[in-house]
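A quick word before the example. In earlier lectures we treated sequence and structure as two separate objects. From today on, think of them as two lines of the same record. Here is ABC transporter ATP-binding protein written that way.
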Amino acid sequence: MSIVMVRNLVKEYPSFRLNSVTFTLDRGKITGFIGRNSAGKTTTIKSMLNLVHPDSGEIFFFNKSLNEHEAEIKKQIGYSTGTVNWYPRKKIRDIVEVTKDFYDTWDETAYHKYLRMFKLDENKTPLELSEGMKVKCNLLLALSHRAEILILDEPTSGLDPFSRDELLELFGELKKNGVAIFFSTHIISDIEKCADDIIYISEGNIVAATSKEDFVTRFSMSGENLEQTFLRLERGAVNE
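And the structure line, produced from the sequence above:
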């Protein structure tokens, strides 16, 4: 069942155009969002959260327009941009106290579960954390209010291989509970490990929005892994 619909999204800058971006996200599915730097991934994600205002197009969550139901919808979304870049000198426990007031679905049990899982110290500040631990801190906040959709921009950035595998396993658990997970990444092996669907964007255009199996059938050559396929496509040798 589609719980997110993005239709004909357009955003134009002097040197870049997001061009009629259209795709859907399904409940209980993990969708990997791939594309090289400046392809339009972050602009798309920020448009989905009304952090960037598109020139045209429509975005629906749970069959409700984002423009008309933004506050209600955002309570059901977990969003992470990667690292924490706000309140750098505040203790994590103080950041949490501020954050949880915005969510009537805040789950203390879930919060303490992920706090232990990510081995975070509530008494530390973001300035005292490594880049990988900052990513985990942001994910902690995104996961602790029982969001039905996780929208994550480079969530595995800065994580060591063990922590990345741990996070991907967590994604698998969450999807079993019906959570939709949409994440952008440059680490194509992460997509290969856990994604059900792939959305591939290049120069502001959606090249493919399909299941991982269909993507491989359409684009991969014999013996290629996903990373090799992606690199070849970016060099312009599309094989359909």
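Notice the following. The chain has a mean pLDDT of 91. We will return to this example when we discuss secondary structure assignment.
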